[in-house]
Amino acid sequence: MTDEPPRYTSLRDYARLLRRQWLIIVVPVIVAAAAALVYSLHERDTYDARAQVLIQDESQALTLLGTPVVGSTTNSSAGIIAETASTPALAAQVRRHLRARVPAATLMGDVSLSIDTSTGLLDVNATGPSAKFAAALANAYARRIAATTTASTTRQLAAAARVLQRRLSHLSPAAPGDAGEQATLQDEISRLDFVQATATPGQVVRTAFPASAPASPKPVRNVALGLLAGLLIGLVAAFLRESFDRRMRGSDEIAGKLGFPLLGHVRRRTLGKAVQPRLAGDRDGAGDVETFRILRNNVELQLAEQTRRAVIVTSALPEEGKSTVAASLAFASAAAGRRTLLVEADLRRPSLARRLGIAPTPGLADYLSGGAESAVGRAIPVFPGAGGNGDGNGNGNGKSAAPAGPLPANLICIPAGSVGDGAAELLASGRMREFLADVASEYQFVILDTAPLLPVADTLGLLAEASAVILCVRSGQTTHEQMQAARAALAPVKPQAVGIVVTDVHGRDQAAGQGLYPYRYSYAGRPD
């Protein structure tokens, strides 16, 4: 068995997947978008505010003045910021200043800090239930951080001055060399006092103002994110379902997998019927008649070089529409004036007698078993073609003329007859071969409705007697493995003698370029 070809080779394949799995894709999108909208409507409004504090390094100014400083105010300021911004002590001070009712721990969680070491700018970002409170919280934190930084630096400078003052107190003016050192120490102390008096290591350079709109919720953004998330989930679910779903859908996919020509389509509502021209009084019925006219023409083209026209209509499994196709094709052939014989060779599950309203016995099984020698055929009245593009008088007005009466007995149906055991043996018997040889010379078109290929061996014995085989494949039901098995069963038949009819076709599949024209198409209007 050859390897399975890729399922998606073009944009058309992806479009087909989206069309088949649209519900699985749309539902997560709607649910996610609705959930995002509900969340946005129930989420409380929150506002953002930002203040900025400039952290200056006073040790650089002291160094320029020629006074070395013990430690580094930059490292000290960074340490102060890291400690004071994350301690409950500062949060408690801010809480008292704002007279807030929320705990200090909550205020700590509503404030975030970020510092740019290259510029010394510290961003204080605050979040609150109101624009005014968020701005007040950001400003309070910024002022407390600036004050704490300034106080810490001032204490550090005062400590350095005290150290120099103690050294100065141990010097004696009378001692040789102490006078020069005293002058140096006094100069450094003066510089420290100057820097201490003028130092502003922490300074609020940007004050927070109340925001005009809440930072959250953002319904439009949330819904957009919900749509994207739902679309992603839906696409993943669609591809997963498609990868595990082995059923074949659509004419292009089925014909491509089997490699046989596509002869026609049968829509879902037609299954279980026998489409007859006299039932074409409404547009839907006329459309079904036109469908089988197309199938009849395609089959005749396929049999153009055949002197014997015996066509087997089968499927891989039951309930794929083979009996519908066989009976309707027989009516379409008889309505075109061909002397047609419809043989029900499915001896296990016969259905044509009930559909056509004829006596079920005697039939083919009775004839093959010797229980009946003749008179097993039933003449079926066939009305002339109706529902075409004209009115029957050459006028292209799209209306159907009422049938004047049935045609001559162009359609003969042989039902299955008395159903019993040994169906495969009866169909493979010499009497069956003689029967087919006799009817081939008498009828222009012989159509055999046979049993499915895979469950039983009844049809396999008839393949050698057929001029062509029509394989009915039900879209959305037959799996890839079943179709490959049916293809293997048809190996004795020449590939050019096998054609496919896709059944259970939806209206949207027909509209997607599957090869069917709407029946209401008419030549009325401006000529070409």
- General form: rod-shaped
What's the order of the H and E elements?
HHEHHHHEEHHEHHEHEHEHHEEHHEEHEH
Number of strands: 12
Radius of gyration: 46 Å
Mean pLDDT: 79
- Helix amount: 40-55%
Low-pLDDT stretches: 70-76, 386-404, 511-528
Describe this structure in words.
45% of the residues lie in helices and 14% in strands. With 528 residues, it is an alpha/beta fold. It has an eight-stranded mixed β-sheet with strand order 5-12-11-6-10-7-9-8, with helices on both faces. Strands 2-3-1-4 form a four-stranded antiparallel β-sheet. Helix 17 links the parallel strand 11 and strand 12. Helix 5 (88-98) crosses helix 7.
Provide tags for this entry:
single chain, 528 residues, alpha/beta, eight-stranded mixed sheet, 18 helices, 12 strands, rod-shaped, disordered C terminus
